[in-house]
Every structure is written in structure tokens, then in C-alpha cells.
């Protein structure tokens, strides 16, 4: 779970990027002592995520801006809805507006896409996982948005677990060799997942001490065969070119997990806005 402290550096970076030497427009036309109220809206059906970031933005920019949430992350929005209100110096509200909306729109977009994907898995045992295909610097937030949308987090970073991929296998000389080396070096304290892209590699992997096996870019028939071969001995994850259209079919093969990089790398930001009025 992200915290205000864990996102402070990113919020500062975003504000500095947008403000630069100062908001020349706002400073030219808005009096310093003018107070205002504002309402932040999500303008379309969505799964809400990112309201705490609005507070984080204004806490960093100007503690005199009071942020009052009107909805909570995870709530479903049917159409145009007010998600929080702001009260304080008009200059600060206008200066922080775009940065706050960028966070809200991006995270709500990820949560919304994730919730659509999760609905495709209804009636199956498969759980939806994200990947490390995240926007640099945004990983904590984007993975939070996936959880908000009903998905599950895979690795947060390279230090989370051992995931032996095709390039590791090529350099180690094979699936069995790679898993044996990993187990010898990490012991039983860390989980080991190994990627396979053929049924022959799967057969080899099933004879190792791997805790989980990733089926990379297999077609539906191959995945069905893989589930039969594993016979519940080790959890299977399907990965590679998974889309909303194919999710249900992949889940019906009987795999335990489906990872989908598109949750974070291809989510479209939701339309959001801010309306301001004088006090």
C-alpha cells in the first residue's frame, strides 16, 4: 500500500515539472488573497482510484488548501460524479489542478480497466495479476490502482521473488539447471517461478523444485495440456499477449493465474475535471 511519504518524491517531481519558474498566468490574473472552493469530478463511468493523491498534491503545494473526499477509492461511478471538494487560496488550487487531475485520471483509468478484466474471469478459478510493465516512478501507485480494481499484484521489483525467464534459462543451459542454481542460492526462503514456452520445458520444470510455473505465449490447446500435465502439483500462470477479449478463454483452460501487462501499460486515463468558484 502506498503512503503519502512513499509518494512525496513523485508528487514533488510532478509539481516541479508543471510549475517550473511559476504559474505566470495565475500569478498575473489572480489576486494572492483570493479564496475559492472547487469540486473535482470524474466525468464518465469508472472505478475510482487516486483520491488520496489529490490530498498529497495539495499537502505538498499549500497546506492551506483543505481537501474533503466525497467518494472513496474503489467505488463505482455511473457517470459524472463529484469525488472531492477543495477550499483555500485560489492561486494554489489553480496551480495544483493539473497535477492532481493527472494522478486521478491515470489511476482511475487503471482501476477501471482492471475491474473490466476481473469481470471477464467470473466463474473461473483464475486470478488476475499485474506485471512490472509500469510507468517509471509510478509503480507503487499503478499497482495500488490494480488492487483497487480487483486485481492482484505480482512482483513489485526484482527483489520480491525469483522469476527465471527465457534469457536466464539460455545462459544457465536449461530449465532444470536454472532452477537448481536458484534454489541452491536462495534456499527455501524465497519462492521460485520459472518461465516455459513449450510443453517439453514444462515437463522439465515439473521435475524441479519450482514453486510456480509461467506459461509464456502458449496457445489455448497448449495451456489445456499444461493444466493436465501439472495436475495441480504447482500453480500455473498464463502470460503473453493476453487481452480483454481473450481473458475468459484463457481462464477456462484451468490456469491459476493470468498476468496482463496491459493493465498498466495500456490503460487509458479517465476524463476528470475541476470547477472552481469564489468564496
TrEMBL record:
Residues 110-275 form the Quinolinate phosphoribosyl transferase C-terminal domain. One of its GO terms (molecular function) is nicotinate-nucleotide diphosphorylase (carboxylating) activity. Gene3D superfamilies: Aldolase class I, Quinolinate phosphoribosyl transferase, N-terminal domain. Pathway: Cofactor biosynthesis; NAD(+) biosynthesis; nicotinate D-ribonucleotide from quinolinate: step 1/1. Residues 23-107 form the Quinolinate phosphoribosyl transferase N-terminal domain. It catalyses: nicotinate beta-D-ribonucleotide + CO2 + diphosphate = quinolinate + 5-phospho-alpha-D-ribose 1-diphosphate + 2 H(+). Its EC number is 2.4.2.19. Keywords: Glycosyltransferase, Pyridine nucleotide biosynthesis, Transferase. InterPro entries: Aldolase_TIM (IPR013785), NadC (IPR004393), NadC/ModD (IPR027277), Nicotinate_pribotase-like_C (IPR036068), Quinolinate_PRibosylTase_N_sf (IPR037128), Quinolinate_PRibosylTrfase_C (IPR002638), Quinolinate_PRibosylTrfase_N (IPR022412). It comes from the Bacteria. CDD domains: QPRTase (cd01572). It holds the Pfam family QRPTase_N. Involved in the catabolism of quinolinic acid (QA). Belongs to the NadC/ModD family. PANTHER family: NICOTINATE-NUCLEOTIDE PYROPHOSPHORYLASE [CARBOXYLATING]. This is nicotinate-nucleotide diphosphorylase (carboxylating). It comes from Alicyclobacillus fastidiosus.
Amino acid at each position: 500500500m502506498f503512503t503519502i511519504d512513499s509518494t512525496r518524491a513523485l508528487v514533488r517531481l510532478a509539481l516541479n515539472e508543471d510549475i517550473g519558474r511559476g504559474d505566470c498566468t495565475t500569478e498575473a490574473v489572480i489576486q494572492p488573497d483570493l479564496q475559492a472552493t472547487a469540486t473535482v469530478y470524474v466525468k464518465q463511468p469508472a472505478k475510482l482510484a487516486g483520491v488520496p493523491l489529490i490530498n498529497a498534491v495539495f499537502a505538498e503545494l499549500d497546506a492551506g488548501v483543505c481537501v474533503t473526499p466525497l467518494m472513496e477509492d474503489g467505488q463505482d461511478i455511473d457517470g459524472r460524479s463529484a469525488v472531492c471538494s477543495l477550499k483555500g487560496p485560489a492561486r494554489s488550487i489553480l496551480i495544483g489542478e493539473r497535477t492532481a487531475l493527472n494522478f486521478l485520471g491515470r489511476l482511475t483509468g487503471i482501476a477501471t480497466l482492471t475491474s473490466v478484466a476481473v469481470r471477464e474471469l467470473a466463474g473461473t478459478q483464475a486470478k488476475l495479476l499485474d506485471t512490472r510493465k509500469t510507468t517509471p516512478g509510478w509503480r507503487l501507485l499503478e499497482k495500488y490502482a490494480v488492487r483497487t480494481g480487483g486485481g492482484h499484484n505480482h512482483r513489485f521489483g526484482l527483489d520480491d521473488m525469483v522469476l527465471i525467464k527465457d534469457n536466464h534459462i539460455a545462459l544457465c543451459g536449461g530449465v532444470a539447471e536454472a532452477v537448481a542454481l536458484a534454489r541452491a542460492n536462495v534456499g527455501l526462503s524465497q519462492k521460485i517461478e520459472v518461465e516455459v514456452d513449450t510443453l517439453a520445458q514444462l515437463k522439465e520444470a515439473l521435475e524441479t523444485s519450482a514453486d510456480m510455473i509461467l506459461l509464456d505465449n502458449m496457445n489455448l490447446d497448449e495451456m489445456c495440456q499444461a493444466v493436465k500435465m501439472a495436475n495441480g502439483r504447482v500453480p500455473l500462470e498464463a502470460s503473453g499477449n493476453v487481452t480483454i477479449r481473450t481473458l475468459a478463454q484463457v481462464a477456462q483452460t484451468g490456469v491459476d493465474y493470468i498476468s496482463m501487462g496491459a493493465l498498466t501499460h495500456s490503460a487509458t486515463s479517465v476524463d476528470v475535471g475541476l470547477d472552481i468558484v469564489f468564496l
